[in-house]
Write a structure and sequence with these properties.
The protein is an alpha/beta fold. Helix content is 36%, strand content 17%. Helix 6 links the parallel strand 5 and strand 6. Helix 4 packs parallel to helix 5 and helix 6 packs parallel to helix 7. It is globular and about 50 Å long.
């Protein structure tokens, strides 16, 4: 079973310390965003095959694999020059993804403003069109290197609903576009009571395009959606596993927005959801 965390949910630390921390907790995979995990600022020209291979070897020496190379940039930045720089950085991650031992580079779909803040302007057709244009550009680059652009939908972004995801997939019909699915990201304080319909629609429409699952949990408090430790909230993970994850052996499951002290309990919760199968090993590594 492939269970890990986003490395940047832990404090920034040297590479060897991060590897030791993850391996000691029975995890065998990780989502790694270089600039969020280490004291460095990636920019175009920063990554080399040597750096990528060094990081890959450090993880693999302890039975760890980089499932997703995170490059969370604003792909619809209103300043065209800054948008171009953001897309260039993402393309560099695509270029060297295989050297990291990874096939997926992931991002969300950004914000119509320079600052990432909630705005309903993200939900307009104009924002959607801008997002499609950028995703098409990134996917064309991914096809050159045989790697995948992993797009993560979210209610605060242009890709904010199951139907918008369906439309994106139709607009960019490439196997080099896949979805990083975080079920909680499609829920709000307004629609959480209808989560069964929301999640079933997503799974039915584009479940075949889900390459990675992000796992977190939530409750509604004072009218707002807030995150809680896995298994202590209201997300119907049994539905997600029964209808989607159990049909995808060895899919990478990345615990998201998790505190260090909750990792072991989250790991145990996820393992409890996976049905027995002759092709799924119970070994953590």
């Amino acid at each position: 079973m492939n269970i890990g965390i986003r490395a940047h949910d832990l404090p920034k630390q040297p590479l060897n310390d991060l590897v030791d921390t993850l391996s000691a907790r029975q995890l065998n995979t990780v989502q790694l965003a270089l600039g969020k995990s280490f004291d460095l600022t990636p920019e175009p020209g920063f990554i080399t095959p040597g750096l990528a291979s060094h990081i890959r070897r450090s993880f693999s020496s302890e039975g760890l694999r980089i499932a997703v190379l995170g490059c969370y940039v604003n792909i619809i930045h209103p300043d065209r020059q800054q948008r171009k720089q953001a897309l260039s950085l993402f393309k560099e991650h695509l270029k060297y993804a295989r050297d990291f031992g990874c096939s997926i580079v992931g991002t969300e779909t950004g914000n119509v403003n320079a600052k990432i803040v909630y705005t309903e302007e993200n939900f307009t057709e104009s924002a959607f069109s801008e997002m499609v244009e950028s995703v098409q550009e990134l996917v064309q680059e991914a096809e050159k290197f045989g790697v995948i652009v992993g797009i993560e939908p979210g209610v605060n972004h242009p890709l904010h609903s199951a139907d918008k995801v369906r439309r994106l997939i139709e607009a960019v019909p490439s196997n080099n576009l896949q979805i990083i699915f975080d079920p909680v990201n499609l829920l709000t304080s307004d629609n959480y009571r209808d989560q069964e319909a929301v999640l079933e629609t997503a799974i039915q429409q584009w479940g075949d395009k889900v390459a990675v699952l992000h796992a977190k949990d939530f409750i509604i408090e004072d009218g707002k959606l807030v995150f809680v430790p896995l298994g202590q909230g209201w997300l119907d993970y049994q539905l997600v596993f029964d209808q989607l994850i159990d049909k995808k052996p060895y899919i990478d499951i990345i615990m998201d927005e998790i505190e260090a002290e909750d990792i072991e309990a989250g790991f145990t919760f996820i393992r409890s959801l996976v049905k027995g199968s002759s092709i799924i090993s119970n070994r953590p590594h």
